[in-house]
Amino acid sequence: MKHSVLISAAIMIFALMSQFPAFAEYGWMLGCVGQIGYIRIPEAQTGIHDGDFVNMNGTNYRIKKNAFIFQSKGLPLVNSEVTLNVDIDMVESREIPDVVNHYDMESLDLIYNKADKTATTPDYSKEHGITLGCGFRIRILGYQSFPVKGGDALFALIQVITDEKISPKE
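Above: the chain sequence. Below: its structure as tokens.
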């Protein structure tokens, strides 16, 4: 009897410990529907770059689809539902100071690839919080700007509506 209790306890401990890595992975492993948090809005998403190209030092760069975190360009209206186009981290309000201190305006800019003349944003997943996957549907609850070194960073307060992950689009 004592032996079977030890085996059962070992199996339970193994099962519990094998679940912990999921907390740092994708929200779909946690069932994050209904959760509320902040996501950073890249400059490209705000519509500051008109059209599909941006000119940098006299060279036109095509803005890749993965530079836009939503499947449509521009900022969605408050209370609208949108689909994520990329994997991105959602953080709690208490994590905002750490996230903001992590960025400076240079790291928020588009990354320019001279070889294929494309522009994209840095990978914003796996930095902080829970990673929401491409294809997740979210509701925009509001926007807030936070100061970072050299400027401001825009964040959206969101609620996760569905957590069905799909492959990101290039």
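Residues 2-19 form the longest helix (18 residues).
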